[in-house]
# Entry
Amino acid sequence: FYVFIALACVVWLQRFSLGISFTFMACIATWINDSFAYFTGRLIGKRPLFISVSQKKTWEGFMGGAFFSVFLTVILSFCCTQLWPSSAFTINLSDTLWICMPVIFLAPLGDLIESRLKRFYNVKDSSGILPGHGGILDRIDALLTVLPWTCIYAFIIRPLC
# Structure
């Protein structure tokens, strides 16, 4: 059910005129957050975020992921709009911020939920597809919380603004 909701969100977003842009921005913001949280945490991480769920996640990694996901997605949005104004990936600054700001909290939350589920079921990998990397679910866990937010914004919040 958890995975199905996120996948359904991708389908729903594609029916929306800016669906490709919103899906693209949600994915990019999430992957930037995950990547920079990992690298920042590895380089300067000292204080654990939630040691009972994941021993390797740190507050420093959280802050690094947050900063770089917002900073780089805003730059990407600006570049896409300026360089390719008629492309399918044009997205304004307001939409970018509405999508990427919640990623600061939702991406780590998705990561922690998936880590907690693996601990609950006492498994190291969520599947055998990517052994040693936590499984396939570990690659998309943050998107499982970000994509529903993107749908909520696109279909409920944005029309009201």
In short: Residues 93-120 form the longest helix (28 residues). The two ends are 30 Å apart (CA to CA).
